[in-house]
Specification:
This protein is α+β, with helices and mostly antiparallel strands and 376 residues long. The chain has two domains: 198 residues, Aminopeptidase (3-Layer(aba) Sandwich), CATH 3.40.630; 108 residues, Gcn5-related N-acetyltransferase (GNAT) (Aminopeptidase, 3-Layer(aba) Sandwich), CATH 3.40.630.30. It is 38% helix and 28% strand. It is built from eleven helices and 14 strands. α2 runs antiparallel to α9 and α5 runs antiparallel to α10.
């Protein structure tokens, strides 16, 4: 651990190895529990499981804490990597399995804590990249408001979500009406011809065995054929099992299921954190695709979310334009890559990194187009 206590009185910034044995896990978890913007992917259960099984080895955990009480006030994992293709830059560590880049921010944290976080994370490079960042989050607003920093949103998009309370109910009513409501009910009646239909949420005791069934279902479909299912690789399976087991111990995961008789035909694994629900992984039996099992389950999940005490937001974690979930979850989260720089040539640094990110996006689009042509 490296500690830097200069600056604000009673404040220190620590840089940890997230897997070290003497890490103050309780303080880290306490911050995750009360964070202004819930983010299970920056908490100890998910992050340590991922790094233990998936790597990489150059991730550091930055924590701004009270030097007298040890209370953590702001934290996020960081590594140095190319912003896009060519330009290395300190970057908050996100992955395809956890595409939420919101730093954990304590409700008592203020601008001084955000500044120390930024200055330490940016280091000598004088720039910090925050990918997969919900731009309306409290942490994003605080960082974008830092005096003297050059702020640039390099790329942004919207992904499906839904709200809680009356707004969420209105979104559900809008999504589940008219022709769609008729069609979904008709398909459900047809599905009942195959056997008794059950839509349910799985409790904590049954979670380990039901997650194994999820892994089998996911591997039986197109993800299994493309070798991208969680069970396709031993390390992803181990990481996923450890994540779900740890989250289940704390009551922070649930599995929603659709069954016909004893046959599981759709399963959705959700991480639950601070009134937020994250739709982590979904799978369905392709033999039943004519009944829209994924959509049936997502609508059930919507209703289950609305019934949760203190529920405020569900994040689909889905790619923009997702054909199944976007018509059903009508809210939208703006997600972007935030670039912050300070000091000499700050504006040049953010422009350079933004250009590098744009180049990466262009190359990704080109690769997708090539794959589509090869498949066709």
């Amino acid at each position: 651990m490296l500690a830097n206590s200069a600056g604000v009185s009673g404040l220190e910034v620590c840089v940890f190895d997230p897997l070290q044995d003497d890490l103050p896990l309780e303080a880290w978890q306490d911050l995750s529990d009360v964070a202004v913007d819930p983010n299970p992917f920056f908490g100890p259960v998910y992050l340590r499981a991922y790094l233990r099984h998936m790597g990489p080895g150059n991730v550091k955990l930055l924590a701004v804490r009270d030097s007298l009480t040890g209370r953590w006030l702001m934290s996020a994992p960081i590594r140095i990597r190319p912003a896009g293709v060519l330009v290395p830059v300190p970057t908050l560590f996100t992955t395809e399995y956890g595409p939420v880049g919101t730093p954990l921010l304590h409700p008592d944290a203020g601008t001084s804590h955000a500044r120390r976080f930024f200055e330490t994370a940016a280091g000598k490079a004088g720039i910090l990249a925050l990918p997969h960042l919900p731009l309306a989050s409290g942490a994003a607003r605080m960082l974008m408001g830092l005096d003297g920093a050059d702020v640039r949103v390099a790329e942004s998009h919207h992904r499906a979500c839904h709200d809680g309370g009356p707004d969420g109910q209105a979104q559900f009513d809008e999504a589940f009406k008219g022709k769609r409501r008729k069609e979904m009910k008709r398909l459900l009646r047809r599905l009942e011809d195959e056997g008794p239909v059950t839509l349910e949420t799985i409790g904590e005791k049954a979670l380990p065995s039901r997650f194994e069934q999820f892994l089998e279902l996911e591997a039986s479909g197109w993800k299994g054929r493309e070798n991208t299912a969680l069970a396709s690789q031993s390390q992803t399976a181990a990481f996923a099992r450890e994540t779900v087991t740890g989250a289940a111990r704390a009551g922070r995961v649930r599995i929603d299921e659709l069954r016909v008789g004893e046959t599981l035909i759709a399963s959705l694994v959700l991480l639950v954190d601070g009134g937020h629900v994250f739709a982590w992984k979904i799978a369905f039996d392709e033999a039943f695709s004519r009944f829209s099992p994924g959509a049936q389950l997502v609508l059930h999940t919507f209703q289950e979310n609305l019934a949760m005490p203190e529920f405020t937001l569900a994040d689909s974690l889905a790619i923009p334009g997702h054909s199944m979930i976007e018509p059903l979850w009508r809210g939208r989260l703006e997600i972007g890559t935030l670039l912050l720089a300070a000091g000499p040539m700050a504006a040049f640094k953010t422009r350079l990194c933004a250009t590098d990110l744009a180049l990466e996006q262009s190359l990704r689009r080109l690769a997708r187009d090539v794959r589509r042509k090869v498949r066709s």
